[in-house]
């Protein structure tokens, strides 16, 4: 049974965007006592967010700039964070980009951009952090997929996004299988419509009303809904849950 150390760190990628899931997540987890490592494209903004967190909560935080789609860059950022923070126990792969381009207008560059950030980026961060988790004999990894992977789009983003997010589910299951013997769990969260800029900007009340028609609950999701699910899946008590995709989608997609 792998036990959590007294002092534990979670690394969150894509945490800087003011209205994004990542930023809501680092605040939610810092409030729970997690030390925070921030990885985002903007190094200065990552460090600024870390300062904000350590000023507001009684935790340690550090930031490092990296392009998640560049493996060397991700490895260097994790190395940097690991050198200054307590043991890395968890990773939340939140960084992602949207892509509303219709399939018949899609070019190779856009396909590669979306797959690289939304799928390769999850692999690069996971691969590096897994080394430390396996060495320590404990870890929790959570990846963000999307309901569009399961439904084949039908959201703001189209085909390359759906493909990448479906790939994240396959990656999650396969890595869960390989890392299970080392007390490392790997799970995915599949958000439904969440009011963030990845939906193409702030959702108007009209767009929200339109989306709610497809849901079982009577509201569109918030970033806090996803942050709470991440907090659950990286907690010490969820060591028997792995290889799963948790739909946090207001009942949009029911198996």
Describe the structure.
There is one protein chain. Helix content is 44%, strand content 16%. It has 8 helices and 7 strands, in the order βαβαβαβαβααβααβ. The longest helix is centred in the middle third of the chain and has 29 residues, at 108-136. The chain starts with 8 loop residues before the first strand and ends in a 7-residue tail after the last strand.
Mean pLDDT: 95
* Superfamily (CATH H level) name: NAD(P)-binding Rossmann-like Domain
CATH architecture: 3-Layer(aba) Sandwich
Helix content: 40-55%
The CATH topology label is: Rossmann fold
Oligomer: single chain
Low-pLDDT segments: none
Give a quick rundown of the structure.
The longest helix has 29 residues. The protein has one domain: NAD(P)-binding Rossmann-like Domain (Rossmann fold). The protein is an alpha/beta fold.
Topology:
Elements: E1 9-13, H1 21-31, E2 35-40, H2 43-56, E3 61-65, H3 71-84, E4 88-93, H4 108-136, E5 139-144, H5 147-151, H6 159-179, E6 184-191, H7 205-212, H8 223-233, E7 245-248
Parallel strand pairs: 1-2, 1-4, 2-3, 4-5, 5-6, 6-7
């Amino acid at each position: 049974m792998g036990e959590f150390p007294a002092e534990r760190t979670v690394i969150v990628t894509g945490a800087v965007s003011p209205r994004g899931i990542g930023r809501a997540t680092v605040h939610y987890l810092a409030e729970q006592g997690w030390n925070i490592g921030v990885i985002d494209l903007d190094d200065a903004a990552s460090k600024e967010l870390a300062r904000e967190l350590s000023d507001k909560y009684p935790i340690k935080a550090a930031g490092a700039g990296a392009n998640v789609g560049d493996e060397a860059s991700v490895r260097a950022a994790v190395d940097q964070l690991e050198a200054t923070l307590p043991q890395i126990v968890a990773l939340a792969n939140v960084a992602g980009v949207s892509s509303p381009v219709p399939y018949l207008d899609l070019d190779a560059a856009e396909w590669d951009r979306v797959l690289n950030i939304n799928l390769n980026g999850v692999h690069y961060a996971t691969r590096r952090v897994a080394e430390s988790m396996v060495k320590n004999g404990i870890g929790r990894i959570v990846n963000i997929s999307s309901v569009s992977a399961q439904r084949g789009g039908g959201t703001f983003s189209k085909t390359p996004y759906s493909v990448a997010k479906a790939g994240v589910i396959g990656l999650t299951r396969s890595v869960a299988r390989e890392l299970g013997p080392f007390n490392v769990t790997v799970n995915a969260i599949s958000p439904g419509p969440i009011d963030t800029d990845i939906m193409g900007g702030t959702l108007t009340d009209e767009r929200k009303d339109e989306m709610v028609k497809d849901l079982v609950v009577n509201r569109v999701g918030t970033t806090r809904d996803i942050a709470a699910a991440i907090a659950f899946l990286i907690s010490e008590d969820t060591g028997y849950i792995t290889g799963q995709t948790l739909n946090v989608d207001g009942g949009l997609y029911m198996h």
